[in-house]
Amino acid sequence: MPHLAISRIAKSYDGNPAIRDISFAVEPGRVLALCGENGAGKSTLMKMLAGATLPDSGDILLDGRPARISSPADAMAHGICTVYQELSLLPHLSVAENILLGRLPTRWASFIVDWRKAERIAGQVLAGFGFPDIDPTALVSSLSVAQQQIVEIGKALVTEPRILILDEPTAVLSGAETEKLFAKVRALAAGGTTILYISHRLEEIYAITDEIVVLKDGQSVLAGSIAELDQDRLIHAMVGRPLAAIFPEKTRQTGEIVLEVEKLSQAGAFADVSFAVRAGEILGMFGLVGSGRTEIAKVVFGAGLADAGEVRLNGAAANFADPLRAVRGGVAMLTEDRKGDGLALDCSVIDNAGLASFSRFSRYGIIDGAERRRLVDDKIRDLTVRPRDPARAVRQLSGGNQQKVVIAKWLLVEGIKLFIFDEPTRGVDIATKVQIYRMIRDLADSGMAVLLISSEMPEVLGLSDRLLIVRNGRIAAELPPDAYRPEDVFAHAAGLPVGQASGERLH
Amino acid sequence: MTEAVSTSRSRPTFASRFSRADILFGLAVLILVAFAASASDAFLTERNFVNVSRQIVTNGLLSLGMLIVIRTGGIDLSVGSVLALAGLLATGLQTNMHFSLAIPVALAMGLCLGVVNGWLIARFDLQPFIVTLATMGSLRGLTYVYSDTPLYPKDELFRGLIGGAFIGPVPVTFIVFALVVPIVWFYLNHTVSGRAAFALGVNKEAVRLAGVDVRRHLILAYGACGLLAALAGVLLSSRVGIAQPSVGAGYELDAIAAVVIGGGLLGGGGGTAIGVLGGVLALAVVDNVLNLFNVDSYYQQLLKGLIILAAVLARRKRA
């Protein structure tokens, strides 16, 4: 009997169907991948399993019996635990208190916390997970983002769930940490826990899951075991068209040097970094999480300060003290944390898209409303933001459309010479990804210098005219396009021995 | 979600700009007015209308200033002290200069104190609550240092031309307030600073990384709040014909209440000038009706507290 079966569920919000007809079943101890673009219905399905919303019709069956999951407490009672992509930790509390929130052990009386026991339990959970180095007494705010993600998962593990739902759990994890997570997932599955695994990264899906269900437009369109479904069929089912020409043609024509970075250092993050980007060129920057890529870019953008070294734009000194000066100097940066610092989510599309370009539609501090609407409207039409409603709060848009609003914000700024993209397609559906790739290429072709940071190997390899690999805050290698071999790139990034055949130039 | 292709680009209709809570509150106030009108002969009189219109000026100006800073995600507790100091200055300086000079000096002082608040908050990244709590206390002290006894205006015209004057049946102070409302509305919706400050209240880091001068817009918002508080102080001392160092204690709470009733969100990201106007009016009408029926002022406080609670409950976001 299947452990979890979803039978013909549907759900609409205000008459707009989010889920039309989804059915699938999974046996105990199996790892099931849920695939689909943003808006395919994954998050609504997750909400139903977490008790945040009820289906309009159809059944959720647990061990063959219909279950009504109408609150998070119901979900917990059924042994269903969800690890969301957004961290829900309390930064000012300790690791142990976060992991055991709501179920802290007590002694002597039911209201006196047994801290020693709490720390022991939390320590055991983290150690059993492969992370004995995370101190249960440390404050969560003192941990790295990757460690926080580990704690978030630990919080789920401590409940010993029977059904564990993981939503993009590896987005901020390094390769080694991902391996430990996968080992834990396999161990849990072997112990009979059913796991629903949601990820945009196909290689992970093939590495960890047993079965796949593909969702598209609120329907389950394809299901099968991992052995039966190859990548092409999977992408075809998700996007509705075959995997072809995802990456635009590379151009080898580059102009003058736009950005020059010389011996740039920031204590604790990176040291002695030098590189240059030319007009019309896309310079890729690959590295594991924590390698210092983002910090380097932030210094160029004035959002971080360097201890030593020099930045030049078109030959002139450009050690910007803040983003204000960087933008005026012609630098734009799309940050990796769209929700955290890329958008004001509760503000409208027009307020967000017009945030960086006030000077274009205002005089003496007074906004020309019609001009602002026209500029923003044109841009969101070009980028096919859906729905095309400038007054709508950005929060109500899907991830891909939110990213388009961020891009619109920067495209509206005049005089940009250097465009930095930090993880431009994180949490973005495949159709939008293709569109963003095309747009980045067009920007370069129009004579802009582009610095592209990404942890997605196909993305950096497919787009970059030249590739820098960053490891431990230093540039480990620089590769020309004919030397792109995924295994070498990874070896450089991870500090492993590199195959002899490649023609890279080591620094 | 395929239906996301919908191209609903129509401007929001007039009715859809108001939430259900707005409509409920509007109705509640209307019912109260209808009740007062039928139960008391004194309510629907010109005299009472003049009274109410003069009384709302103080809280109205303070609330508009408070709205400006609350939209940035901040708060200004010092408005009551600024009001007192501005009233004393505008009155006391009349021994040295004409009141037409003393008033601009008092207003400039309010602006400067607001700018200092904003600068402390923006430059050192301090919490607005703490900074303005501190300035609230020190400015009150400064007010008593300047004069620990009430001051009376030297020039009769100070009262005759402003606080005690009418154009037709309308008090001049109310006209001043009525002119300020559209200016604040314009600032909030149609200036770079107003839009930036709004986004700031929603996500400060996103605004900073968009290359916006966060410091300048924050300082401007607190400056505007200080200026409006000073204006309220000048108008109040002119109306009552006396400037007391003790006046204005607790006024900041009435202003915050009006903003919250009007749909403003503490912590930033909400509130409109029109909404705040509604909040100010609602509080004033309640006050007025209770006064007309000679209800003890302790009950008035109790009722005001309950109204604020009701407003917050009606506006809470449902999951």
From TrEMBL, chain A:
Keyword set, alphabetical order: ATP-binding, Cell membrane, Membrane, Nucleotide-binding, Repeat, Sugar transport, Translocase, Transport
Location in the cell: Cell membrane
Membrane topology: Peripheral membrane protein
Main localization category: membrane
The ABC transporter domain, residue ranges: 4-242, 252-497
GO-annotated molecular function: ATP binding; ATP hydrolysis activity
GO cellular component, one term: plasma membrane
Domain of life: Bacteria
Record Pfam families: ABC_tran
SMART domains, A to Z: AAA (SM00382)
InterPro entries: AAA+_ATPase (IPR003593), ABC_carbohydrate_import_ATPase (IPR050107), ABC_transporter-like_ATP-bd (IPR003439), ABC_transporter-like_CS (IPR017871), P-loop_NTPase (IPR027417)
Gene3D superfamilies membership: P-loop containing nucleotide triphosphate hydrolases
PANTHER family xref list: CARBOHYDRATE TRANSPORT ATP-BINDING PROTEIN MG119-RELATED (PTHR43790), GALACTOFURANOSE TRANSPORTER ATP-BINDING PROTEIN YTFR (PTHR43790:SF9)
Similarity annotation: Belongs to the ABC transporter superfamily.
Name assigned to this protein: Sugar ABC transporter ATP-binding protein
